[in-house]
Amino acid sequence: MQSAQQTILRDAMRLLNLTRDALTERLGVSRRALDSWLLPDNSNEHRSMPTIVERFLAEILSQDTKVAPAHHVSTANWAPHLLSVEQFSRESVEELFRIADIMQPVARRQKTCRVLEGAVLANLFFEASTRTRISFGAAFCRLGGSVCDTTGFTFSSMAKGESIYDTSRVVSGYADVIVVRHPEQGAVAEFAEASNIPIINGGDGPGEHPTQALLDLYTMEREFSRLNKLIDGSHIALVGDLKHGRAAHSLAKLLGLYQGLKITLLAPTGLEMPASILDAASRNGNVIECTDNLASGLAGADVIYATRVQKERMQGEVMEGYGENFQINLRAVDTFCKPDVIVMHPLPRDSRPGANDLSTDLNQDPRLAIFRQTDNGVPVRMAIFAKLLGVDQQIQHSLRDISWVHPQKLGPNDASFDEL
Ligand code: NCD
């Protein structure tokens, strides 16, 4: 089976670093035509890309000698374990996103895939989790595998004093891949030292959360494609507890792989981003701005990436300055931001009164991308499993139509533009 046209087009835009408008110009087609080729197969507006255009696109790609196709570039640097975004190059990120694009029809319940039939995932979550644990499990199941898990220390033998080494080696005998979340920074790397099967960092204390950052970046890329923008040259505002937020740490480091960015770090005094992460983010000459002024910090931003205050990680820190004036809500977005800003958050958001986390008053607003972001967790984590377990080349051939009924829109407030 040929690669879906959406995957071919998205991959071409990535490899050539072109917006949709720029690609239509290179191809000599209308933007409307390109948009219709990029829509999912089951959309009413979907059209097939003519073979002549596909051939022309292949020619452009082969002529552009400066651009090496990402899938021909070695990506061994992030295997066998996935512990940190520091293992990634721009090419390996782009290759992963290409595989995630191929996974989209499976994640969206248009196709099934059984490339991991018989494989077992062990989910070891020693800290609270909803989306990371479930989306890793769902991603593995949708590839045909099965999931075993344990949650919290109370229900694992660690409560009896078992070491990380013993736990990791024991579970390695039962599973083919292990996802670990642990409250201590560095603990997941310790699990990896005791195992030859792939260990994935599902969040290690205030350290890193690499798979969250990858799905965040993938979400930005997809949202930007719709808005005719590129990640290179964009303005990203990270807001909130940037001291303890591991998702923000991994994301800031990943952004350092891109060029010409303005990264605004909006945190109240005491919750600022650690200096070592600023260094990684400012690679490639990216401009970093640190402020606690929401009005000036959000001005001109293409993305607001809000985060939760990580009270559970605080040891006597005072949170002065994290008042109502720090909340991302409809008024702040309307007053301070460009009309095409997108609002993201790794979630969970603290919706209790006084938390001043991302407000629910943006729930009906198409600029709010948080549920498109959580949806993207599945294809990105499927792509990670496929790469780590070496089945990424088999996916295309293993896709089958689904046989059950599912709704077109997953949530009642989902924006109607969806793919566009
Ligand atoms: C984050 C985490 O656990 O680091 N959530 C997530 O995995 N999506 C953010 C948080 O807990 O605030």
TrEMBL record:
Domain called Aspartate/ornithine carbamoyltransferase Asp/Orn-binding: residue spans: 233-386
Keywords: Pyrimidine biosynthesis, Transferase
Pathway(s) served: Pyrimidine metabolism; UMP biosynthesis via de novo pathway; (S)-dihydroorotate from bicarbonate: step 2/3
Family annotation (InterPro entries): Asp/Orn_carbamoyltranf_P-bd (IPR006132), Asp/Orn_carbamoylTrfase (IPR006130), Asp/Orn_carbamoylTrfase_sf (IPR036901), Asp_carbamoyltransf (IPR002082), Asp_carbamoyltransf_Asp/Orn-bd (IPR006131)
Binding-site residues, L-aspartate: K160, R246, R308
The keyword Methyltransferase appears for this protein: no
Pfam families: OTCace, OTCace_N
Keyword Cell division listed: no
Chain residues that bind carbamoyl phosphate: R131, T132, R181, H209, Q212, L347, P348
Subunit record text: Heterododecamer (2C3:3R2) of six catalytic PyrB chains organized as two trimers (C3), and six regulatory PyrI chains organized as three dimers (R2).
Summary of the function given for this chain in its UniProt record: Catalyzes the condensation of carbamoyl phosphate and aspartate to form carbamoyl aspartate and inorganic phosphate, the committed step in the de novo pyrimidine nucleotide biosynthesis pathway.
Protein name per the record: Aspartate carbamoyltransferase
Taxonomic placement: Bacteria, Pseudomonadati, Pseudomonadota, Betaproteobacteria, Neisseriales
